[in-house]
Amino acid sequence: SIILAEAMHGDIIPVLNDDIVIEYENVLRRPKFKFEERTVRVFLDDLKRRAVYVDTGMVEYMLQDTKDVVIYAFLIEERKNDEANLDT
Question: Is 47 in contact with 5 (CB distance < 8 Å)?
């Protein structure tokens, strides 16, 4: 994705928390993607080095896909400080 490429080139700064990193790890290790373990590990290590970490609060809204709660909570927390955007 364009956003991922920009994050890896330093054009944007990834904003993460532990739950998001775990979700990325789980998704990238799915058999359907066929990524080698070393590739996943190197990518995540690089992404984590470039990132800013933020703690999130509880989400009071019901979302259609409950797996998106952590991303939504993260965005709400960041909007308290910056003009954070959720690009998909």
Answer: no
